[in-house]
Amino acid sequence: SRSAAAAEASRSQAAAASSSRAAAQSAAASSSRAAAQSSAASSSRAAAQSAAVRGTHVTVYNATRTQGLAASYAQRLTSAGYTSVEAKNWSGYGIQSSTVLYNGSANKAAAEAVGKELGFPVMQTPNLQVNGVAVVVTG
Fold first, then answer.
1. 126 or 7, which is more confident?
2. Cα(63)–Cα(91) distance, integer angstroms
3. CA pair distance 111, 102, nearest whole angstrom
4. What is the DSSP string of 3-63?
5. DSSP SS3 for 126
6. Looking at residue 76, what is its pLDDT?
7. What was the pLDDT predicted at 17?
8. Closest C-alpha among 88, 80, 122, 82 to residue 105
9. H-helix or E-strand containing 133?
10. Region label for 88, one of left (φ > 0), alpha (ψ between -120 and 50) or beta (otherwise)
11. Phi, psi of 32 (to 5 degrees)
């Protein structure tokens, strides 16, 4: 009878251990699903932000006498996925080196992305009269 009780206790412990493993596996699976959903949501937000940045209007200005300079940079941005890009001649104040300019915090992310794409510094200019982001190319 003693060995029957020991066998029953052993089976009971094995069942408890198995149940505990199953609960741990279930919790891990739930945690993994939650992490995957969170990652997908984060990825979706990043894609939406990227699309918004690439949809920001960008005007590339030629601040030199080199024909087609602004157009070549505008083409680089278009090739990189920017959807609203134009090239013009610069008639503003003196800029010493190629720079990305923006005038409001709403355009900051787009300006930083453009600056990264072109390798130009980014500067906020409160009195900039441009809708979106301006890129002034000096050479």
1. 126
2. 8
3. 6
4. HHHHHHHHHHHHHHHHHHHHHHHHHHHHHHHHHHHHHHHHHHHHHHHHHHHHHS-EEEEE-
5. coil
6. 96
7. 52
8. 122
9. strand 133-137
10. beta
11. -65, -45
Position of tokens 């009878």? 1
pLDDT digits (tens, 9 = 90+) for 39-51: 555 566 556 567 7
Indicate if the pLDDT at residue 37 is higher than 90: no
For the chain, percent of residues with pLDDT exceeding 70: 65
For 55, the token pair is 């949809």
The CA distance from 130 to 102, in Å, is 8
Dig out the tokens for 105 from the structure.
Answer: 């915090």
> Model-level pTM?
0.66
Do 133 and 114 form a contact (C-beta atoms < 8 A)?
yes
CB 66 within 8 A of CB 98: no
